[in-house]
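Run log // design_07
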C-alpha cells in the first residue's frame, strides 16, 4: 500500500569486507515525523543514510519509502519519484554560483523554468534569504551556507528529507534557528530523518530516536527516554573506543557531570 512520506528500514545490514558497519537495523518513520538517528562516532549513521538515499546498496535488508520498496532505486529516481532529498555532513554548494543559481539548479531537476523560479522565491522567503539571493553562495558565513542548503532541499518539494549532521559547525543561536526551520518543515508535512550529535537540536525537534552503536540498534524511544537509557549512557561514556571529544557534543546538560569519567 502506498503511504506517502513514510520511511522504513527493514533488517538493513551493510558489510565492508570484514566490518559490519550496519547490522540488522530496522526502524520506521511516520509521515510528517522528525526521527533522530544518534550514536557515537563510527556507529553507522552515515552509512545508514547512504543506504536510505540510494548511494549504497545494502548487503541485506530493504528500504521502503512511501510504501514502495526502493532498495534498488538509484538516487535520481528516489528524488524524482519518492521525493526523497538528502544533505551531507559537509556543505556542498556550487562555489562559482550565487545563492539564487544554486537553488535554481536544484529546482530545475524537478520543475519547469517558471515553476522553478516560483519555488526558489518561496524557499528564499521562507528561510529569510531573499536579500542574499545574488550573493556568491560560498562567500556567506558557514551558518548561512547551511541555511542555503536547507532552502535547496525545500525547492525540491520533498516528501522525505535525510539530514546528515545539519547542526555541525553551527553556534547555539544558529541551532535554534535550524530547529525553527525543521519545525516549519514538519508542519508542512515533510518527514525528516535527522542524523545529529547535538542533543539540544534532537531534543527540540525529534519525536522519536533510534540509537546505534557499532552498527546495531541499542535503544529507541523519545529523546528523553533514550538519553536516560543506561545502555546509551554506557555507549557514550563508558566506551574505551570512542573519542572523548564527542562526549561534550552529545550529552545533554541535565546529564552532564552525573557519570562522566
Ligand atoms: N566505504 C567504506 N568502506 C569501509 N568502511 C567504511 C566505509 N564507510 C564507512 N565505513 C566504516 O563503517 C563504520 C561506520 O561508519 P559511519 O561513517 O557510517 O559512522 P557514523 O556513525 O556516521 O560516524 P560519524 O558520527 O563519525 O560520522 C566505521 O567503522 C567506518 O570506518
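design_07 sequence
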Amino acid at each position: 500500500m502506498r503511504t506517502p512520506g513514510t520511511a522504513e528500514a527493514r533488517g538493513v545490514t551493510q558489510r565492508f569486507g570484514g566490518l559490519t558497519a550496519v547490522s540488522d537495523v530496522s526502524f520506521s518513520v511516520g509521515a510528517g515525523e522528525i526521527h533522530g538517528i544518534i550514536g557515537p562516532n563510527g556507529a553507522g549513521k552515515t552509512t545508514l543514510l547512504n543506504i536510505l538515499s540510494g548511494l549504497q546498496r545494502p548487503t541485506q535488508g530493504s528500504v521502503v519509502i512511501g510504501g514502495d520498496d526502493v532498495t534498488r532505486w538509484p538516487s535520481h529516481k528516489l528524488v524524482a519519484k519518492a521525493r526523497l532529498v538528502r544533505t551531507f555532513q559537509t556543505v556542498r554548494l556550487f562555489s562559482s554560483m550565487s545563492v539564487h543559481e544554486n537553488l535554481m539548479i536544484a529546482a530545475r531537476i524537478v520543475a519547469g523554468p517558471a515553476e522553478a523560479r516560483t519555488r526558489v522565491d518561496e524557499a528564499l522567503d521562507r528561510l529569510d534569504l531573499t536579500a542574499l539571493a545574488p550573493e556568491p553562495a560560498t562567500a556567506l558565513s558557514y551558518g548561512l551556507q547551511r541555511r542555503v542548503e536547507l532552502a535547496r532541499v525545500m525547492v525540491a518539494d520533498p516528501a522525505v528529507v535525510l539530514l546528515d549532521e545539519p547542526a555541525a559547525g553551527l553556534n547555539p543561536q544558529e541551532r535554534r534557528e535550524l530547529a525553527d526551520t525543521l519545525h516549519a518543515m514538519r508542519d508542512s508535512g515533510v518527514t525528516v530523518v535527522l542524523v545529529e550529535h547535538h542533543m539540544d537540536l534532537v531534543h527540540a525537534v525529534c519525536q522519536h530516536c533510534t540509537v546505534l552503536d557499532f552498527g546495531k540498534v541499542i535503544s529507541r524511544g523519545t529523546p528523553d527516554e533514550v538519553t536516560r537509557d543506561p545502555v546509551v549512557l554506557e555507549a557514550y561514556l563508558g566506551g574505551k573506543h570512542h573519542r572523548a571529544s564527542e562526549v561534550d557534543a552529545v550529552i545533554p546538560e541535565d546529564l552532564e557531570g552525573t557519570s562522566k569519567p
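The radius of gyration is 18 Å.
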